[in-house]
Amino acid sequence: MRRQTGSYESISTPTIADWVPMLGNAVIADVIEASSVLAAFDEYALARLGAENPALGPMSAILLRTESASSSQIEQLTASAKQLALAELDEGGKANATTVVANVRAMEAAIRLSDHIDEQSILEMHRQLLSRQPGWEHEAGRFREELVWIGNRDTAGPIGAAFIAPQHGLVPGAIADVLTFARRDDIPVLVQIAVAHAQFETIHPFVDGNGRTGRALAQAMLRNKGLVTHTTVPLSAGLLVDTEGYFGALAEYRAGDAGPIVRRFTDAARFASVTGKKLVDDLDVELERSRIKMTRVRSQSAAWLVLPRLVGQPVVNAQYLKKTLGLSTVTALRAIDALVEHGVLVERTGQARNRVWQHPGILSVLDGYADGIRRATAPKGVSA
Question: Which of 170, 146, 145 minimizes the C-alpha distance to 158?
Fold first, then answer.
């Protein structure tokens, strides 16, 4: 009580609904270049797979899952590709994986609701996120009604904290201001997304899940503004490469300089586009290898329906195939048998019941992508 007796200063966010960026020609040129790279990645994925290709949907699903995993990792929540895929089947029992799956649901809500971004859509993203996070379900989908702060070893109160968010009574009005800003069409999209995200993080409207919800909002805005229309760009992977720079840019934004957070988003966009292309290519290669292995499988076999699904969900069981493809138990098991027989799937449990099968090649690609991010994150001269 003695440590937390006294005065403190919490943030009071300025309005940004009418904010005019003054970022300099170099930053604006950087924004234009990064925006074109993002749009090119989106078109690349479409051209590589084709709008009618049954793998495009699953590819978008795995890119969204990759984005969710990276966003969660920024908050020190890690899960391997296999753990995440198992959690999608309600298997595995890893707490972090279950939490990351909740972030996947939040990202899905962001994309689904991107046509009209409003207060309810933000609350729905947050509801999807926290309703599956043990101990926080009662806070899911509602603005906080208490003070929150960051960076204080003394958890009893805000005095001494590095950042104290606005008083909770200011949250609804501040969010309305961000949404007004987000609806404008006279600002470069990446600038708008970076500033809206930074303002959202400064408001800190929830007791938990602010960072993940704020990055889901960024994905919704990318889709809403038409910068990306076919796939999910793993933007958080680019932010994850330099989390110190990301959090530092947020602090500089709160001090009045929007330039650093805009630059972090342009850097993240370029990283996401380059590594995202390689991920699409590597997954497509694995898919083609599997097709070659299945050349002797009759074209009417349900195994061909299952194959593209393995891109988005590389670990499956019969129940999953029944639910997603409408197959009967017998047909699902026959399809799995065909995929196992031709070396596409491998059974991982060794049990007679509750069996689960995985695609080793696709899991290897996803783990390789995560390793690439870790290598990019490691300081020079340090092994990741």
Answer: 146
